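Please produce the structure of this protein holding flavin mononucleotide.
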Amino acid sequence: MFYEPGKTPHGLPHDPFKSCVVPRPIGWISTVSREGVHNLAPFSQFQNLTFDPPYVMFASNQNTSGRRKDTVNNTEQTGEFVWNMATYALREAVNKSAEEVPSDVDEFDVAGVSKASSRIVKPCRVAESPVHFECAYHQTIRLPGNGTMGTVDIVFGRVIAIHIADDYLTADGHIDILKARPIARLGYFDYTSVESIFSMKIPGNDPRRLAGMEGSARF
Ligand SMILES: Cc1cc2nc3c(=O)[nH]c(=O)nc-3n(C[C@H](O)[C@H](O)[C@H](O)COP(=O)(O)O)c2cc1C
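Below is the modeled complex.
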């Protein structure tokens, strides 16, 4: 099949686009408003962008009333957000935190998770999550879109502090991803979680390229 988005119909019962870009890691983002209300929401339009220094982004469409989401307002107003790893064990809480609730509602309570203070930023961490990034707001880029929710605010942040629960580190110093079992979005209402790992190295022995794969730019 072939179609041009927005120009020619795909002819399928559901739009296939989001099911092509999979699996999408989840940015489970906590923020706090200027008034001190704690907010929590998942964003599967999320990625790391680079690693030295580390930057991440999440892309937030407008809400069902066509307004900027609380996560974006809070991040821009306070200059801070926290990324929490969304795991299989926490999947129901992740889902509950996606409910559209008024801005004055504490979404840690809605999701039924506990708060852990961050070390540097004001937004709290999800205590039950094994990995967190404390982030400093960098910039927002807005892409125009169709319909009430189409316009998207892409929020960039620099990771200024990283927490990894000690019991999620293996003896050889890797994050125990199979233990954490992060979840990720597929298309439609579907998800996956990390249940297997395979390893490969780029052919050749260029130590700079291998260092880059491992996440070190300062070779
Ligand atoms: C797994 C999952 C992924 C989501 N990803 C996105 C996303 O990438 N962008 C977006 O705008 N909304 C996304 N949503 C919906 C938001 O989480 C939802 O609109 C939430 O209420 C926003 O909260 P806030 O208004 O407190 O910021 C997602 C929901 C779920 C359950």
